[in-house]
Design goal:
With 322 residues, the chain is of the alpha+beta class. 37% of the residues lie in helices and 22% in strands. The chain binds (3R)-3-hydroxy-3-methyl-5-(phosphonooxy)pentanoic acid. Residues 13, 16-18, 32, 104, 106-107, 138-140, 190-191, 280-281 line the site of (3R)-3-hydroxy-3-methyl-5-(phosphonooxy)pentanoic acid (PMV).
């Protein structure tokens, strides 16, 4: 069978997903909204081969760990069952950014894998179905099927928990400046993190308030209201990290450099610079800003001690075949 290659970009959640109702299907505890990021990308090639005796996975030229391979095989098993085939697959994946460091590498990885594997297996699926498939690999991956602003519906089951592009705010060109302070693999990944979210006494309050935050985020995007977006994005990130920090075990992803950037962003806001922060499951800080403030924010971030690199991302496209 012919090899098929797909490309996907990671996304940054403006309203975050943390915790699952169903860990196997990755049905989320709450809905979320994200922005897909250009510049960073994962390219994945899948080839089903009747001669293979096991699935093979290579990431950035190296044979992948058993844990990563098993996770990919789980997704391939789902695709094999849909395509009614038993052929095993060779998967090669490469990314142009640090993986597992809290810059949402799994969102790009599983979006690219879903698109490439479905096509390689001979399936002709619509994007909504591909989004549901990608969700099983990594929840946030279901949002990388689309470009620009995307909403992932909490849904009630496998059939109705998928992503869709937000029809509003299509021409609002926000930027994400990612301040990298640590690119090593995080000690406690998000798959394990979702499983302990419920152990925080704050998770119930965070989840039940999510429809309100989603509505405010949609309103900010619709009205291109950057100040409102900042308020809701920072609140949402702080709520998620409060849950992380109060779960058992407690997860503290922030380092002193992370906090230094958060504090710098707060002081720049008081000077009316259009920027706000949001942080995923890692120490690196995503600084959202308008194109007008991007150069100044980049310049200031680079001067902060501990900032190793600043990656500039405009809005990216959805996952697609090469
Ligand atoms: O998709 P996962 O399992 O890697 O979880 C993503 C979790 C966060 O990045 C912290 C939030 C989000 O919505 O992307």
């Amino acid at each position: 069978m012919n090899p098929v290659t797909a490309i996907a970009h990671p996304n940054i959640a403006l309203i975050k997903y943390w915790g699952n109702r169903d860990h196997t299907l990755r049905l989320p505890s709450n809905g979320s909204i994200s922005m897909t990021l250009a510049g960073l990308e994962t390219q994945t090639t899948v080839q089903f081969d009747s001669h293979l005796s096991a699935d093979e996975l290579f990431i950035n030229g190296q044979k992948a760990s058993k844990r990563a391979s098993d996770r990919v095989s789980d997704l391939l098993n789902h695709i094999r069952s849909l395509a009614n085939t038993h052929h095993l697959a060779r998967v090669t994946s490469s990314s142009n950014f640090a993986i597992a460091a809290g810059i949402a590498s799994s969102s790009a990885a599983f979006a690219a894998l879903s698109v490439a594997a479905a096509q390689a297996a001979g399936l002709d699926l619509d994007t909504k179905t591909l989004s549901r498939i990608a969700r099983r690999g990594s929840g946030s991956a279901c949002r990388s099927l689309y470009g620009a602003f995307v909403e992932w519906f909490v849904g009630t089951d496998d059939a109705d928990s998928f992503s869709q592009p937000l029809s509003i705010g299509k021409d609002w060109e926000l930027m994400d400046l990612i301040a990298l302070v640590d690119q090593s693999e995080k000690p406690y990944g998000s798959t394990r993190g979702h499983k302990i979210a419920e152990s925080s006494p704050l998770q119930t309050a965070r989840v039940s308030d999510t429809p309100r935050r989603l509505a405010l985020c949609r309103a900010a995007i619709k009205d291109k209201d950057f100040e409102l977006l900042c308020q809701i994005v920072e609140l949402d990130s702080n709520l998620m990290h409060s849950v992380m920090q109060t779960s058992t075990p407690a997860l503290l992803y922030w380092t002193p450099e992370t906090v230094r950037i958060m504090q710098a962003v707060k002081s720049w806001q008081s000077e009316k610079l259009e920027v706000c922060y949001t942080i995923d499951a890692g120490p690196n800080v995503h600084c959202l800003c308008t194109p007008a403030s991007a150069n100044e924010v980049e310049h200031r971030l680079k001067k902060l001690p501990g900032v190793q690199e600043v990656i500039l991302c405009a809005q990216g496209n959805g996952a697609h075949l090469l």
